[in-house]
Write a structure and sequence with these properties.
The chain is mainly alpha-helical. It contains 19 helices and three strands.
């Protein structure tokens, strides 16, 4: 690394904003759905399942084991990929794609929700007097840590129920859902096939459509995922026609809008995605107004504003994007103030500051951007202090320092922020805890420092 003399300081001061410093995406911290086990991401980026009032110790332990086996299988797949490609960065990218840290919090929550329901049902049904031998064996093998055997036995029981009589369709569909939930930890394409078997028996089941859509998306079939999510939307719309005041179905309809919008955004249909996200926002605004104390609905609002702002920014509507990000910030500030110890809400607040800062900088408001980036940095520092071993937050802190660095005018502080960020990223790289994109960012920073000083 070159010596940072007065000439080096001058070069640092003249450094243009780094294009690689994008706002950090929301990392999965904690997720919990009513009736399900709780799941969090620990400092090593691994999913950790814990008990709740409606999730007993045995269920949580079984779900935890399934996720651990899934992670181990993905590590093996990454090693195979390494041997085949010989490219370390491809392996790192694959590991991120296939790890819990690479999932958004909603996807992780949905997987745990499906696994919790499957494990509970398998265990309960095996204890009933009319349980088949296959169901009893499936439960025993699941508890023994042999999900492959349980998957095969559930499939056999489902096929038998489906073949016996149309009166067994509901039972067979339930068995297929249980099998698919377990399969999803092994092979998403096979899980999709089994969910489709359940749909053949119960074509209008909202939950099955949702899980099947998730599997299609995970398998890379966005067209099928979009089709399934639209069917979800139709089911929710029909349910609301029968019960217009149902808050539960209103939220389910909003979820379908969000899923559809996500696919549209990935396919480059910005206009369609914006329309979908705005439809979700309208529903959630209505629900939040009816129950202002519902923090989950408030968080849904925050996420909706962020998604809309991202689309507006991509479409060149800077003023609209800034307005959306500020709306998200206002809600995030209220939630964070209600529970200062809630790391997830603190991070929502951090993301809002970051996105506002990016927009302010793009619009030439350097002073405003620096103020927003400093607010983001303060939160990032607080989170790392609470959990120094959390690699996700360490990366966020490094990026926050680099954001402030690009707008700071104090020479000594700029250099301090830059070197601290690089030091953090180097430590994480040495521990193999950086993904490919963050490794590339570090390499660019190191290359900059290696440049000879300009006379």
């Amino acid at each position: 690394m070159r010596k940072l003399d007065s000439v080096g300081f001058s070069l640092l001061l003249g450094l243009a904003p780094l294009p690689l410093l994008a706002a950090p995406t929301a990392a999965p911290i904690t997720a919990i759905a009513k009736g399900d086990c709780a799941v969090a991401i620990n400092a090593s980026g691994q999913a950790v399942v814990t008990v709740t009032a409606s999730c007993d110790k045995q269920t949580a332990a079984t779900v935890q084991k399934l996720l651990e086996q899934q992670a181990e299988q993905r590590r093996k797949n990454a090693q195979v990929d390494k041997r085949q490609s010989g490219t370390e960065q491809n392996v790192v990218a694959l590991q991120k794609q296939q790890s819990a840290t690479g999932q958004d919090v909603a996807a992780l929550q949905r997987q745990v929700q499906a696994l919790t329901a499957a494990v509970k049902t398998i265990t309960t049904q095996a204890q009933q007097g009319d349980a088949s031998t296959a169901q009893k064996q499936a439960a025993a093998n699941l508890q023994a840590g042999e999900p492959e055997l349980a998957i095969a036995q559930l499939g056999a029981a489902a096929d038998k129920a489906a073949a016996d009589s149309t009166r067994q369709a509901q039972s067979a569909a339930a068995l297929y859902r249980q099998q698919a939930a377990l399969l999803a930890t092994r092979d998403v394409k096979q899980a999709l096939v089994v969910y489709q078997k359940a749909l053949a028996l119960e074509p209008g089941d909202y939950v099955t459509l949702a899980y099947a859509g998730d599997m299609a998306q995970a398998a890379g079939d966005s067209a099928l995922a979009l089709k399934l999510y639209r069917q979800m939307q139709q089911v929710a719309t029909q349910a609301l026609a029968q019960a217009p005041q149902s808050a539960a179905w209103q939220r389910e309809l909003s979820v379908s809008h969000e899923r559809i919008g996500g696919i549209q955004q990935a396919q480059g249909d910005g206009a369609g995605a914006l329309q979908s996200f705005q439809a979700r926002l309208a529903i959630m605004q209505k629900l939040a107004a009816q129950d202002p104390g519902n923090s989950q609905w408030q968080r849904d609002l925050t996420g909706s504003h962020i998604k809309i702002g991202d689309i507006q920014q991509a479409q060149g509507d800077g003023a609209g994007a800034l307005q959306s990000f500020r709306a998200s910030l206002a809600i995030a500030q209220k939630l964070a103030a209600q529970d200062p110890g809630n790391s997830q809400w603190q991070r929502d607040l951090s993301i809002s500051h970051n996105k506002i800062g990016d927009m302010q900088k793009a619009q030439g408001d350097g002073a405003g951007a620096l103020q927003s980036f400093r607010a983001d940095l303060a939160i990032a520092q607080k989170l790392v202090t609470q959990d120094p071993g959390n690699a996700l937050w360490q990366v966020d802190l490094a990026k926050s320092k680099l954001k402030v660095f690009t707008g700071e005018t104090d020479t000594a502080l700029r250099v301090k922020l830059l070197l601290e960020a690089i030091a953090t990223l180097r430590e994480l790289r040495a521990a193999n805890r950086l993904d490919a994109a963050d490794r590339t960012m570090l390499e660019k920073l190191e290359a900059f420092l290696q440049k000879p000083a300009t006379p």
